[in-house]
Specification:
single chain, 216 residues, alpha+beta, six-stranded mixed β-sheet, four-stranded antiparallel β-sheet, 27% strand
C-alpha cells in the first residue's frame, strides 16, 4: 500500500521551486480544525519522531528538545521508573508517545506514568495518564502551553498528578487533582525534594534535576 509520503515523492518535481515548502504535500492532509483522530494517528505513523499533538481538530507541532531538556527528562524518567517498576502497578514512559486525553485530543507528556489498566494494547495510544511530567521549553508559547493550557486540559481529563519542571523559575510545581481542577501540592526549589502525593514515597531532589540538565 502506497503511503501519503511516498505518493508525494512520486510527483513531478517541476511543480515546485527550490527552497520553498512542498505545497502539494500539505494538500494531502486535512486543514487546521478538520483533523480527526484517524488523520492524526496516520500522520504520527508517517512522520517519525517529530512530536505532534492534536487539540480539537488542530495540530500543534512541538519544539524539538535540546540536550538540557533531554538530560532532565532522562533523569526524571530513570528516577520514576526505578521507583515504580518494582511495584508492578504501572509503567513510566518517555515521549514521544501520543496519549488520548479526550475525544479528538492527544497530548504527548515528556514523561507519563500509566497504571496497568490504561495499557490495553501496546500497539495503540494509552487511554489517559495518571501522572504527567512536562519540562517547560523556552519561549512564551511553550510556557503558556505547559503552565496554562495543559494544566487545564490534564485536569479535565482526570490526570491525577501533574509535574511542571520550570527552568526559568528553577522550580518543580506538583499539582494534584481536586475535583475538576488542580490544587498545588508544592512548588519545590533547589535544596528541596519534590514529592508525589499519588506515588507515596516518590521524591526527587530539585537541585539534582537542574544539575542533570547541565550534564552534571
Amino acid at each position: 500500500m502506497t503511503t501519503l509520503l511516498e505518493s508525494a515523492k512520486s510527483r513531478d518535481r517541476s511543480n515546485g521551486k527550490p527552497h520553498e515548502p512542498v505545497w502539494e504535500l500539505a494538500k494531502l492532509w486535512p486543514l487546521q480544525g478538520e483533523w480527526t483522530e484517524e488523520d492524526y494517528l496516520a500522520l504520527e505513523r508517517e512522520i517519525g519522531n517529530q512530536m505532534i499533538e492534536l487539540c480539537d481538530g488542530w495540530l500543534e507541532i512541538l519544539p524539538m528538545p535540546d540536550l538540557y531538556h533531554q538530560y532532565i527528562v532522562a533523569m526524571l524518567w530513570s528516577s520514576l521508573n526505578d521507583f515504580t517498576r518494582p511495584l508492578k502497578q504501572g509503567r513510566a514512559v518517555q515521549a514521544p508517545l501520543p496519549v488520548r486525553i479526550g475525544k479528538g485530543k492527544f497530548r504527548e507528556p515528556d514523561i507519563g506514568y500509566f497504571e496497568n489498566h490504561r495499557i490495553k494494547d501496546v500497539r495503540k495510544p494509552p487511554e489517559g495518564v495518571d501522572l504527567a511530567i512536562e519540562v517547560v521549553s523556552p519561549g512564551n508559547e511553550n510556557r503558556e502551553r505547559d503552565l496554562v493550557v495543559k494544566r487545564r486540559e490534564y485536569a479535565r481529563a482526570g490526570v491525577r498528578e501533574y509535574w511542571i519542571v520550570d527552568h526559568e523559575e528553577r522550580t518543580i510545581m506538583v499539582l494534584t487533582l481536586a475535583g475538576k481542577s488542580y490544587k498545588v501540592h508544592g512548588v519545590f526549589k533547589p535544596g528541596e525534594d519534590a514529592t508525589s502525593k499519588l506515588l507515596k514515597g516518590f521524591k526527587v531532589a530539585v537541585s539534582d534535576v537542574f544539575a542533570a540538565g547541565e550534564g552534571a
